[in-house]
Design brief:
- The structure is a homodimer of 212-residue chains.
- Chain A has 212 residues and is of the alpha/beta class.
- Chain A is 53% helix and 14% strand.
- Chain A contains 10 helices and 6 strands.
- In chain A, strands 2-1-3-4-5-6 form a 6-stranded parallel sheet, sandwiched between helices.
- In chain A, helix 8 crosses helix 9 and helix 9 packs across helix 10.
- Chain A starts with a strand and ends in an 8-residue tail after the last helix.
- At the A-B interface, helix 1 and helix 10 of A face helix 1 and helix 10 of B.
- Chain A binds a DNA duplex (30 and 30 nucleotides) through helix 7 and helix 9.
Chain lengths: 212, 212
DNA sequence: GAAGTCATCAACCGATCGGTTGACGCTTAA
DNA sequence: TTAAGCGTCAACCGATCGGTTGATGACTTC
């Protein structure tokens, strides 16, 4: 008899946890050993139960999926993290991969795709949802002109809140000229022509978040 | 023996459908008679199976939850629609209620809350998640200064895409002065001082959507 | 040590934006 | 019918923005 894959499910929605639990525990070669409702809980339980694969949501209270992934990987690198989320923004995908995720699935994936992904992850194989793989490929092909620096993102986040260049300059203790320079760079990188479109594109790509 | 509540589950995520199915069909007084993956399917199945309560997601391909709710209510008004979604934007809530939803729950609701909501809905009782009720109350208390007219929303959606006033004027076949007037009104209604903040606030409140 | 990126600043330009005031016709609600 | 809201437009103003050129120093990377 094959040893079954020990799973930890992490998601802040009880409905989703129940769904995953039901679907996965019915597979003969899988076993759900725990559930967590936020990132902090996931880290704690993963350490205690040492699952083979952690299914990880990204947006959660307390600690988000990326941070939790990093912590789990730091403590026990052989734990495989399979990100399962609604969001397919470039920024989310990249951050998850950088944090050490073994795979990236979208929640609208059909059941079979999910099973396969869990099995692949348990063997350390890297597997992405087709839509996600697409995004990654495109990102690699076109030289990423949209890698904003920290400062640029910081300035853009003030723009999002409706501050003028002058106000941003005061907030950051730099001159207005500096703010303008940053923004011009942002426009070029994002391929837009004004601040409003820049904010819009940044939100779409997940460079900025809607809440705060 | 009490007659059990006949349920139709509508959600584009297989995982969520499985979760709801598992949780609800385990309740002695409930029975899941069908599942739908989009709005169009929901309308079709609801007509055929005549469920007591339809659990309805809002954002779905083909036909969104609001449209599906309207159609189902039009054909068979005694069907109770319980909206179950991730989004709690004012605009979403209002549109759902206007379409005839009997209740509005968020997906992060605990199991018990869900069970109660289904039972309440089956009797035609109106039930909202606490967070949702909060939003509705606040909306009623503060005179809604932010009810944008159709035209204003239209103009704002062009602004979001980064068009200048002149370009918007051309697109809508009106003068630039008109566009400016609309925008000034938008700023006042949303309580902001420039176009970028207006877009940002509109996105937060669900007046504009990120995609398209 | 050269090349590249990043953050910083200055001075200047024309275009655009935000705001005001005032106006007209239309429809809906009070 | 009076009021209110909507959509349309004009003319005008000062402030802001987008863009350019050019420059400096710090820090990596090769």
């Amino acid at each position: 008899m094959k040893k079954s894959i020990r799973l930890l499910i992490t998601d802040d929605h009880p409905v989703v946890r129940a769904g995953l639990e039901g679907m996965l525990s019915r597979q003969p070669d899988m076993e759900v050993v725990g559930e967590a409702g936020d990132g902090a809980e996931a880290v704690e339980i993963a350490e205690r139960l040492q699952p083979d694969v952690v299914l990880m949501d990204l947006r959660m209270p307390e600690m988000d999926g990326v941070a939790a992934t990093q912590k789990i990987k730091a403590v026990r690198p052989e734990t495989q993290i399979l990100v399962l989320t609604t969001y397919d923004s470039d920024a989310d995908i990249l951050r998850a991969v950088e944090a050490g995720a073994t795979g990236y699935l979208l929640k609208d994936a059909p059941r079979e795709e999910l099973y396969e992904a869990v099995r692949a992850a348990s063997q350390g194989k890297v597997l992405f949802a087709p839509a996600v793989a697409d995004k990654l490929m495109r990102r690699i092909r076109e030289p990423r002109r949209d890698t904003l620096s920290h400062r640029e993102i910081e300035v853009l986040s003030f723009v999002r809140r409706g501050l003028s260049n002058k106000e941003i300059a005061r907030s950051l203790h730099v001159s207005e000229a500096t703010v303008k320079t940053h923004l011009i760079h942002v426009f070029k990188k994002l391929g837009v022509e004004d601040r409003t479109a820049a904010v819009s594109v940044a939100l779409e790509r997940g460079i900025l978040q809607l809440n705060r």
